[in-house]
Amino acid sequence: MSIAEATDLKTEVVRLDHVSKQYGSGANALLALDKVSLTVRKGEFVCLLGASGCGKSTLLSLVAGLDRISGGTLDIGGRHVSLMFQEAALFPWLSVAGNVELPMRLRGVGKAERKRRAQELLEVVRLKDFGHKRPHELSGGMRQRVALARSLAQDADILLMDEPFGALDAMTRDILHDELERIWREQQLTVLFVTHNVREAVRLGDRVILLSSRPGRVIEDFPVTHDRPRRIDSPEVAGQAAEITDRLRAEVARHAH
Amino acid sequence: MPIKFPSARAGLDGVAQDTTPPPAEQPRTDLAAADRVTGLDALELGGRSDKGALGVRIWRSAWPKLLAVAIVLLAWQLVVWAEWKPVYVLPGPATVFEDLGGLITTADFWDGVRLTMIRALTGFALAVLIGTVVGAAVSRFAPLRAAIGSLITGLQTMPSIMWFPLAILLFQISESAIMFVVVIGAAPSVANGLISGIDYVPRTWLRVGQVLGMKGFAKYRHLILPASLPSFISGLKQGWAFSWRSLMAGELLVIVPGALSIGVRMQQARDLNESSLVISFIIVVLVIGILIDVLFNAADNALRKRWGLTGS
């Protein structure tokens, strides 16, 4: 790796500075995010962790540009983002390959190129023989992999994931963690991953950012340095997860008084 | 891997791979991971059953219908045997089917069917065109919706025969009078089908569209229109039923000179006191209606199957 590339890896691709988000106004106003500051560097895997209602999905919507911030500054330097949800939300009128091709179709990529690239991406998510199938013929885990391939087809600089494995059973989720880690490494992705599962966050992230609830604030930013590939049931992951859980509990207790 | 005997094999494959102990001390290779992925998928995809031979399936779906026909014929015959009405007013099934057999072997009859079907299809096509344009416009522009949205639903409840006096005043005794009523009967259903289809596009799909940057025409082309297809097809089906009813009413009321449609022939049979022929035409209209319904149901089922909306 050249020096230029090495410094490139340090580039901040997402920067939030005292970002607030408020819904409604006056007495009914709800402060979802309160002066949240965080950065994501190129190639980094950052997990946003918090209980439900901490505004983590709101934060992703803001970064994705689906919603507007109420205060502070949000800078993604005009980079392209793609966003993956808990539901695969594939379109039933398209085949699996058709779903993966759709983002390219919308960008005006030629048919042959589109087909080639879609097949390539289906191989990346290990579904190369399923392109002609319909989404409903696939299992939940497979559908989520197709959704990942569709997100990758956007050729975005930043991949935002909103509890993408939240609706899957533990075994399937475990496998998809391995898959996502491999794809992140191979494709050199930058990922901002939202979850309420502490072990999942430690399993996947380079950093785990803990958010408080109502309003969402950054409590702490935990670096995760264990060697990859990790296992969700390894002692190191479990140990750090316990530490973060304690921190979260203390925060909840503090709010209860 | 190819799944030959879906339910049984998939289960075995999955179990076989699960029982293989993971090589804990060696670094896991990509190949092993790939196997694990396929194994789990095979497990989850299992459980599809064959529905038996084609003949058996046809018989299974056909016998209740055949039974129903037999019951109706029997009841009819019983009424005739009871001599509730003289046989020249209410002939039995045997007489009617004999006359029907004679009727459908004449070229005249098929000319009538052709004329009626051309009217039906032209009217329906016009109704689809107008209904689609109006439906799209109403769902796109909020003021338009407020103005005529409820009017469309109101029109749907209007018995189409009520339009004929006005249609005859507007267009005299002509094809246009019939078309007017057919279109006004069917277009609201088509429009409503499209409007509700557009209204109920799932939120998650809309969010995906937003994430993929769909806007304006592309959003309609790639998301809204395909997503509203099932509802649109229901609208078409209902629209067809309305246009077919309106057309039959029209053919009995608006007798265009020289146009010997099914309705006109039926009127003539009544004028000549030929009950048997009148009943024959009733059966013809019923059969055409059923055949078209079968077509719509086939389209509907094909779509449901493609989209995975079936119960299984």
UniProtKB/TrEMBL annotation, chain A:
Under the heading InterPro entries, the entry gives: AAA+_ATPase (IPR003593), ABC_transporter-like_ATP-bd (IPR003439), ABC_transporter-like_CS (IPR017871), ABC_transporter_ATP-bind (IPR050166), P-loop_NTPase (IPR027417)
Query: Per its UniProt record, what SMART domains does this chain match?
Result: AAA
- Pfam families given for it? ABC_tran
Extract the PROSITE patterns matched here.
ABC_TRANSPORTER_1 (PS00211), ABC_TRANSPORTER_2 (PS50893)
| Matching SUPFAM superfamilies | P-loop containing nucleoside triphosphate hydrolases
This protein's UniProt keywords = ATP-binding, Nucleotide-binding, Transport
Domain of life, per UniProt, equals Bacteria
Q: Which residues cross the membrane?
A: none
Q: What is this protein called?
A: NitT/TauT family transport system ATP-binding protein
Organism of origin = Pseudosporangium ferrugineum
UniProtKB/TrEMBL annotation, chain B:
Where is it mostly found? membrane
- Positions of region (Disordered): 1-28
Q: Name one GO cellular component term.
A: plasma membrane
Keywords attached to this Swiss-Prot or TrEMBL record, sorted alphabetically, are:
Cell membrane, Membrane, Transmembrane, Transmembrane helix, Transport
- This protein's source sits in the domain of life called Bacteria
Kindly list the residue ranges recorded as spanning the membrane: 66-84, 117-138, 150-171, 177-201, 222-240, 246-264, 276-299
Compartments where found? Cell membrane
* Gene3D superfamilies assigned to the protein according to its UniProt record, in alphabetical order: MetI-like (1.10.3720.10)
Indicate whether DNA damage appears among the record's keywords: no
Q: Does the keyword Cell membrane apply?
A: yes
Which processes are annotated in GO (biological process)? Answer: transmembrane transport
Recorded family membership: Belongs to the binding-protein-dependent transport system permease family.
Protein name as it appears in the record:
NitT/TauT family transport system permease protein
